């Protein structure tokens, strides 16, 4: 049993209006992540979900902003601004993926299929899904920032984009969760825990397999198929650098009574990013 640590009172969610890959003459290589097709496929497959997915996150959270405290209302506003800019930058990134020779039609259709299913669900269920997905993105973001190995040798503009996105995912990681607490304030603790836990299980059984399908599709376009593709994905995800292996503990923490995203404090990662990327004046 853990005791929930609320969102820090001194936390400021800061929308950073930055653009990446716009420099004249910049060309993003097909295998932009250190020449590694598996690392490249992982990030490319993830990026294709962001533009439409983040629009869904925004709508799910905004649906329950009425009656929110002034602090939460401001955090929802800043969260929305960050997600809008993430969408803009990943649209541009995905365009560069296409320009490098990939067809992302299959990956787009994956996202469209999920969003069609979402339309039939109650708003509170969509908020629970957003909360689970925001936890996924936050723990992936933490691993990305803590372990430089994930982007060593990557295209500098692409790497900068992913680090920028990661730090803002950490910064706003509790907005959907705090909105959920506001929206379900009349619920029992068990009812809250039951729905959020069931939704995380549903999301997990979709999120990981769907990303793997997307990676397989991209790798097939590189001529990497069959067991070679599957073995490479498994090694990348659970061996070295082992992104999914390294987030398992943080993923499991979501099911504990007393969970809150800020039970794990990553403000030091935000501070380090700010020190390394000062705002231009």
TrEMBL record:
InterPro entries: UCP07580
Keywords per UniProt: Hydrolase
GO molecular function: hydrolase activity
Superkingdom of source: Bacteria
One Pfam family per UniProt: Metal_hydrol
Protein name as it appears in the record: Metal-dependent hydrolase
